[in-house]
Structure to design on (680 residues):
């Protein structure tokens, strides 16, 4: 479920892992969701991906472009157990040819044993303790956890109850089934003609039942009155003359009008603008419950319905249209990328709801609540008339961040959402001072990045929806968001379009490092000159590279050269061998090819004997050529760039390989970043 944080934010909570980006794919001008008609392709994809017979693929949903390209999102099982964080997206041409794969947890998700060492009762006790409230029920399920680190056997413990602030809770706690350690946790409750309080006189699509009218439309969006209760479905609002509320809190119907109006406009926006047939993409509306609890200063989505409190003193229901659309958009995220509510993914999740909450407000085009780039400006949750968040300069709320950094993922998602909100504003409207719809904005760029030219909000909304629905997985980070959004912009509008250039420039302006995707004529990852390596700076995690699990990391124990991810080989202080490699074809037409990378080394060894080594190699046609060997002798903890002429390999498919061998005592760390195989 999704909720509003009483201090300053609309909120959410979900589930886990480190994501990987998709290679560029051809697309139609606009993508439209489709029913999962590709279920029969699971067996073929299982074989093509080289998964074990213990793993099964289950279609979650399918998005089909107008040219027939399909984006099939799969969940996985291992020996009948659900794999949490094991989802992947297969992109196929209309002819059924695989074009690309996005993994949340790359490769196989096997565990050595499915027999737990920790009892289910013990795991459930840990879940109840983590919840910190009197649990109404606690239930554990044995699963494979692939959301972070190496896949492991675990329990998914669901604890249900009510928190001290009256918010209901459905807390998932992941407990290691072999050690009993709590791995992570998240809550399903993600915070979060009528006369309305915030949008003036509005038209509602009500239906008649006998002599009464129902606050309900033809697709099933309907609103009920909880009358202060904190459970149950509430009582359906009815009215004799189909004129609802009086525009103030003195009428109980007023909050219902705003909630119903928000639900109807959100449904219409997703269907008419983005081609999505409601939250679940099945044409079904959702229930909205108002008058929850007593002076409850929050709203939330619980996976099935919207719920709104009446605010401080029960005078400001949290039912403004951007809040309503924000919360219901958590439902859309839950049913597409299912972004976790932690790390970078948590910020992306929260910002997605801000983006589409803003989009719906503009779409509604109410003179009483004109479109703007402010979040929650009508509900006065801060008590001083200020909005919850500012998209042009998120830091104006005192806690959100304007720019991405490697430490961003440690923040509350309400604040780590700042950079993506900032990106949305910049890509839509551009940087600098301007007045839009009567509101003054002044959006900066980060770190001296160039000014940004906006491409228009309408285009950027579509780019982000395509990114959410076809490129991101549960633990995608800002690097994956950059790659995915640029790929989406190219697919929808073309690599030379202003939209693509604005999307790319806005990510640069919020300090997200360049990745493997770039617009034609836009910025490219250093060095320039046609980098053939994919994910060259490792910012998308272990995607595009194969080998030992673990060395590609954002662990802060060693610095990255740029961004937060790097290749950290060694550092174990024990006998070990680690390899990371990528296959690449060097065109026969190039005149020059250069392999380069940045490297730093540090060691606990002493003396002039090379105990630990790392080799950089090119493997071609069964022959291995070692370009360089590094060891504990002469370790240099300052990053240095190394370059090698590999033109002799043109016309061949080669393997770029990093091979590390460490002896039984004292560590040596070989850290590599910002690789490139550039050609001219």
């Amino acid at each position: 479920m999704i909720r509003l944080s009483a201090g300053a934010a609309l909120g959410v909570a979900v589930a886990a892992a480190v994501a990987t980006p998709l290679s560029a794919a051809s697309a139609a001008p606009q993508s439209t969701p489709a029913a999962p008609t590709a279920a029969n392709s699971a067996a073929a994809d299982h074989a093509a991906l080289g998964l074990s017979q213990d793993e099964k693929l289950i279609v979650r949903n399918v998005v089909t472009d107008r040219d027939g390209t399909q984006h099939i999102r799969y969940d996985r099982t291992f020996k009948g157990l659900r794999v949490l964080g094991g989802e992947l997206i297969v992109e196929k041409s209309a002819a059924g040819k695989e074009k690309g794969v996005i993994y949340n947890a790359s490769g196989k998700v096997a565990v050595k044993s499915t027999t737990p060492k920790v009892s289910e009762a013990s795991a459930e006790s840990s879940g109840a303790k983590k919840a910190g409230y009197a649990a109404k029920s606690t239930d554990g399920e044995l699963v494979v956890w692939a959301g972070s680190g190496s896949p492991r056997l675990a329990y998914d413990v669901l604890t249900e109850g009510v928190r001290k602030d009256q918010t209901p809770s459905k807390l998932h706690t992941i407990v290691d089934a072999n050690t009993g350690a709590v791995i992570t946790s998240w809550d399903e409750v993600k915070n979060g003609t009528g006369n309305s309080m915030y949008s003036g006189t509005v038209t509602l699509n009500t239906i008649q039942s006998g002599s009464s009218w129902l606050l309900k439309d033809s697709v099933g969006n309907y609103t009920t009155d909880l009358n202060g209760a904190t459970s149950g479905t509430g009582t359906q609002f009815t009215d004799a003359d189909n004129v609802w509320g009086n525009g103030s809190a003195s009428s109980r119907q007023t909050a219902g009008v705003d909630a119903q109006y928000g639900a109807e406009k959100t449904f219409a926006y997703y269907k008419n603008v983005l081609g999505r047939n409601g939250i679940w993409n099945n044409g079904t509306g959702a229930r909205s419950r108002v008058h929850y609890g007593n002076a409850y200063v929050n709203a939330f989505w619980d996976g099935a319905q919207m719920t709104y409190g009446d605010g401080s003193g029960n005078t400001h229901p949290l039912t403004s249209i951007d809040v309503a659309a924000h919360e219901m958009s958590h439902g859309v995220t839950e049913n597409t990328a299912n972004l976790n509510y932690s790390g970078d993914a948590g910020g992306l999740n929260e910002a997605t709801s801000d983006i589409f909450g803003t989009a719906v407000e503009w779409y509604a085009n109410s003179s009483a609540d004109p479109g703007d780039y402010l979040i929650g400006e009508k509900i006065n949750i801060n008590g001083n008339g200020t909005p919850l968040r500012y998209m042009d300069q998120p830091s104006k709320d005192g806690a959100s961040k304007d720019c991405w950094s490697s430490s961003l993922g440690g923040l509350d998602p309400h604040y780590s959402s700042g950079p993506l909100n900032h990106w949305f504003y910049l890509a839509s409207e551009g940087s600098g001072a301007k007045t839009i719809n009567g509101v003054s904005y002044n959006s900066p760029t980060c770190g001296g990045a160039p000014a940004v030219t906006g491409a228009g909000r309408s285009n950027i909304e579509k780019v982000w929806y395509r990114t959410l629905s076809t490129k991101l997985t549960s633990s995608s980070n800002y690097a994956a968001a950059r790659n995915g959004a640029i790929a989406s912009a190219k697919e929808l509008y073309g690599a030379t379009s202003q939209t693509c250039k604005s999307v790319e420039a806005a990510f640069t302006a919020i300090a997200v490092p360049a990745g493997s995707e770039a617009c034609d004529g836009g910025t490219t990852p250093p060095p320039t000159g046609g980098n053939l390596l994919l994910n060259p700076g490792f910012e998308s995690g272990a995607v595009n590279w194969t080998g030992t699990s673990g060395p590609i990391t954002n662990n802060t124990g060693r610095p990255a050269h740029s961004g937060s991810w790097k290749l950290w080989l060694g550092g174990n202080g024990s006998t070990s061998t680690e390899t990371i490699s990528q296959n690449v074809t060097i065109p026969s037409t190039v005149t020059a090819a250069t392999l380069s990378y940045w490297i730093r080394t540090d060691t606990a060894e002493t003396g002039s004997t090379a105990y630990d080594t790392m080799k950089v190699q090119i493997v071609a046609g069964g022959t291995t050529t070692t370009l360089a060997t590094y060891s504990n002798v002469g370790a240099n903890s300052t990053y240095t760039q190394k370059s090698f002429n590999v033109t002799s390999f043109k016309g061949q498919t080669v393997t770029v390989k990093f091979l590390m061998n460490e002896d039984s005592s004292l560590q040596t760390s070989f850290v590599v970043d910002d690789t490139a195989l550039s050609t001219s």
Notes: Residues 126 and 182 are 7 Å apart (CA to CA). Confidence is low (pLDDT under 50) at residues 1-39, 522-529. The two ends are 52 Å apart (CA to CA). The chain has ten helices and 36 strands.
